[in-house]
Specification:
By secondary structure, the chain is of the alpha/beta class. It has helices at residues 25-34, 44-50, 60-65, 74-85, 91-103, 111-114, 173-180, 199-206, 226-229, 240-252, 272-283, 302-315, 331-334, 338-349, 421-427, and strands at 8-9, 42-43, 118-119, 122-123, 127-131, 134-137, 186-189, 219-224, 256-262, 287-294, 317-324, 360-365, 369-379, 382-392, 402-405. It has a domain at 8-103. Helix 8 packs parallel to helix 10. The chain is globular. Bound molecules: pyridoxal-5'-phosphate and iron/sulfur cluster.
Length: 439
């Protein structure tokens, strides 16, 4: 197979857009203003094989990766624009963007403070241990992606503010932590995208978990969007064979290897490059699962999800989670009300084979756990949301229905009103004391 070379394009290459579409100087300038605040990166695969340039403004991948002035509040847009015109580089611009970042809730679900575990009394950076059995690892060289989704809740890691970053140091203390904690069955390597790393670097994170002192780790999961953003990672990249060999070693060690794929839209898995990648991963015994948020004008309709789940099952990918967009970054531009996300989920799930009904959703991943919006019901004349935890900090809460007043406009748990006093507990933020309740 002919080898493709990944070419990354960021703000400094905006002119390349002129090659693909009609775009005015003014629109390019607006793009670069927003790019001072939000991350931007595309690559040759996204540009040449995903985006349909005959109608870019309606294209899901254009919406997913490109920037738009409406992603910033008008006053914020003007402030950045003004700072740029006043000579650009100085501290004024940096101060303006830093202030905007702080207002965009850079750390939803308190991930910096409540989930960092301790080893011998000091925090293990780049590790998150929120649910007893699953531990998240953020490899320091995997905190970037082959392209960026503009809505991404990991955005602080991409915009270069070091204090907002969260990643392992190279000391590998995470390995000691995992070896000591026998309750951990699942290790999830996440990012960014850990598969942006060379296979030889990824090996340093995986190999230490395959030995006898990590026998309690029965599942290695890898969260990635490479299938959508650079499927050649698995097939023709110069170290693709090394990557596949490493993944195969996980399977041969008797463990479950789960590739947790972020897949936004059916077109993403229908290119021949993506199909080849799926076939190769399945051939080594990897289990492929998919998850994605519902994003306005990218995939906020039932037909898209019906097609997505159907196409996934046909190719051997298990539909896993449909998420609600997190309360961070330019959410106002992308968010979908909970009621609408539920309609999309029900509309899709009711039209597919049972094999495609393995997706749970819509799910909010919060401080307290993963909350599923199970339905809307009538409770003695009051319209309510029926909710439940599918994953919770307090294990006891899983699968116990609770209720909130129906609200057409609510897009996140923080705007829901508990129906009764006994529902309040499920909807309030954790006490600091509860933060590591399972220890
Ligand atoms: C979703 C998630 C997990 C994994 O949960 P599963 O239900 O086992 O897939 C682990 N840790 C965090 C912080 C999560 O958000
Ligand atoms: S691929 Fe995932 S981590 Fe990377 S930008 Fe998109 S949502 Fe964020």
């Amino acid at each position: 197979m002919a080898r493709k070379t990944l070419k990354l394009y960021g703000l400094q290459h905006l002119d390349i857009l002129r090659h693909y579409r009609d775009i005015s100087d003014r629109a390019l300038h607006e793009f670069s203003v927003v790019g001072k605040v939000l991350p931007f990166r595309v690559n040759n695969y996204v540009l040449d094989e995903l985006i349909d340039w005959s109608r870019p403004d309606e294209d899901p991948f254009y919406r997913l990766t490109m920037l738009d002035r409406r992603m910033l509040a008008p006053a914020d847009f003007d402030a950045v624009d003004r700072a740029m015109r006043n000579g650009g580089a100085g501290t004024a611009l940096a101060d303006v963007t830093a202030a905007i970042h702080r207002r965009l809730n850079p750390h939803p679900a308190n991930q910096m403070t409540t989930n960092v575990p301790l080893l011998n009394g000091s925090g293990v950076s780049g590790l998150q241990h929120k649910y007893t059995e699953t531990c998240l690892v953020f490899p320091s060289s995997g905190q970037t992606c082959a392209a960026y989704c503009s809505f991404c809740f990991r955005w602080p890691q991409f915009v270069g503010d070091r204090s907002l970053r969260m990643a392992t140091d190279e000391s590998q203390r995470f390995v000691s932590y995992i070896r000591e904690h026998k309750e951990i069955t699942d290790v999830l390597l996440t990012g960014g995208d850990p598969l942006i790393m060379r296979a030889s670097v990824l090996r340093r994170y995986i190999e230490p978990l395959l030995g006898p002192d990590s026998a309690h780790v029965t599942t290695i999961r890898i969260g990635t969007k490479m299938l959508g953003f650079w499927p050649y990672r698995f097939t023709t990249d110069d170290d693709a064979d090394d990557l596949i060999r490493l993944l195969e070693e996980v399977v041969q060690s008797g463990r479950h290897l789960a590739i947790m794929m972020h897949i936004s839209h059916p077109r993403e898995i229908e290119t021949s490059a993506a199909r080849d990648a799926v076939r190769r991963l399945l051939s080594i015994g990897a289990v492929l699962r998919s998850q994605s948020p519902v994003v306005r004008d990218v995939n906020d309709d039932a037909e898209t999800w019906r097609e997505l789940w159907t196409s996934e099952v046909r190719q051997g990918i298990f539909p896993y989670y449909m998420f609600v967009l997190r309360d961070t970054g330019p959410r106002a531009f992308f968010e979908v009300p909970l009621s609408r996300a539920l309609d999309v989920y029900r509309g899709a799930v009711s039209q597919v084979s049972g094999l495609a009904r393995s997706a749970r959703g819509p799910i909010m991943s919060t401080d307290m756990g993963k909350i599923s919006v199970d339905g809307v019901a009538d409770f003695g004349g009051t319209r309510i949301f029926v909710l439940s935890y599918v994953q919770a900090r307090v294990a006891e809460w899983v699968k116990r229905p609770f209720f909130a007043r129906y609200d057409d406009a609510a897009t996140w748990v923080d705007s829901l009103q508990p129906l009764t006093s006994s529902d309040r507990m499920f909807l309030s933020r954790p006490e600091p004391r509860l933060a590591r309740a399972h220890h």
